[in-house]
Amino acid sequence: MTGRLMIAFAIALIVGAGTGHFYVPWLRKIKAGQEIREVGPNWHKSKAGTPTMGGVIFILAVTAAIFTAGFTYIRDGQLGAVFVLIFSLFYGAIGFLDDYEKLKKKQNLGLSAKAKFILQLVVAIALLYLLRLEGYLTPNLYVPFFNVIWHLPEWLYFLLAAFIIVGTVNAVNLTDGLDGLAASVSVPVFVCYTAVCFTWGAAQYGALAVFCAGLTGGLFGFLIYNFYPAKCFMGDTGSLFLGGAVCGMAFALDMPLILVPLGIIYIIETLSDIIQVTYFKLTHGKRLFKMAPFHHHLEMGGWLGHKWTEKQIVALFTGVTIVFAVISYFACAHRFDV
Question: In the structure, what pLDDT confidence band is assigned to residue 43 with cuts at 50, 70 and 90?
Fold first, then answer.
């Protein structure tokens, strides 16, 4: 299994890096540049015109890895990785529609919030139904760290699951606000998933391990073009695909609660946005953060006055995620130990 994971990583890295070599100049040629929202930090306006929809790079990379390094597992009936890929692709398609609308309108507003929510909810329900039908998912909530299971009514479990999926996808999307941030933070997440699948065994989780190793390689290939200063952005095409993959894996492994420690940065980013809006309304115009989400707060000086650079924020958030990824691994690695 180790060899296949290394091959999956290498194939995705090569495909990602190779695709970007031709794809990024093509995006620039067709003027697929992203508009920068007016309310963002002033210095971000210099990024206007940077090609978007770069997420296609790691989408192609992980797809190539699954159907090469993971083909034997799929042939033997391990379809979980295919389900997660299809699920992520549907979210990527929603992101593509959003990116297309932004490019067409030449502004940083794409699909309406209502349209995106309805589409995301439909995809979430479809995945849950498929995983339940194929036996990958049960209405029993596994609790990491304690290694216990809470038995929930099926309707309550799936209501909670749909909320978790839509929330996670949008949290990853919200984290995509600095060069290399969402991709860098997501690398430890998928390394953790890979390690968990490896520990649980190739017989059932080999294809899912290949998916995660492949996406890790694809993200590294993408970061060649996305790390500061970015030559392209992943766009909603990439961030929604990535969000779908993050929560799709959690549900394919039947342990959605692992997203709490593993996705700690996504949660912090989302909570900062919610807190900012709530505080603004309650105090009639006051702000708790200089700007939300939290990475912009740090950029603008935070509470201590130190203005963090994009590289520093990426390093900080990735470092925090690495720590929590290690914790998350040990929280669930021995789930099936006798």
Answer: low
**Burial classification of residue 328, based on how many CB atoms lie within 10 Å of its CB (0-12 exposed, 13-18 middle, 19 or more buried):** buried
Q: What stretches of the chain adopt beta strand conformation (E)?
A: 140-143, 148-151
How much helix, strand and coil, in percent to the nearest 5, is found in the chain? 70, 5, 25
Split at pLDDT 50, 70, 90, the class of 191 is very high
Compute the distance between CA of residue 13 and CA of residue 221 in angstroms, rounded to an integer: 5
Neighbours of 269 (CB within 10 A): 26
pLDDT over 60 at 38, yes or no: no
CA dihedral sign, ordered 224, 173, 9, 21: negative
- Report how far residue 193's alpha carbon sits from residue 8's, in angstroms, rounded to the nearest whole number: 14
Neighbouring residues of 93: CB distance < 8 A, sequence distance ≥ 6: none
Residue 313 predicted with pLDDT over 70: yes
Query: What is the number of other CB atoms lying within 10 angstroms of the CB of residue 22?
Result: 8
DSSP 272-312: HHHHHHHHHHHTTS--SSSSSSHHHHHHTTTTTT----HHH
Q: How confident is the model at residue 7 (pLDDT cuts 50, 70, 90)?
A: very high
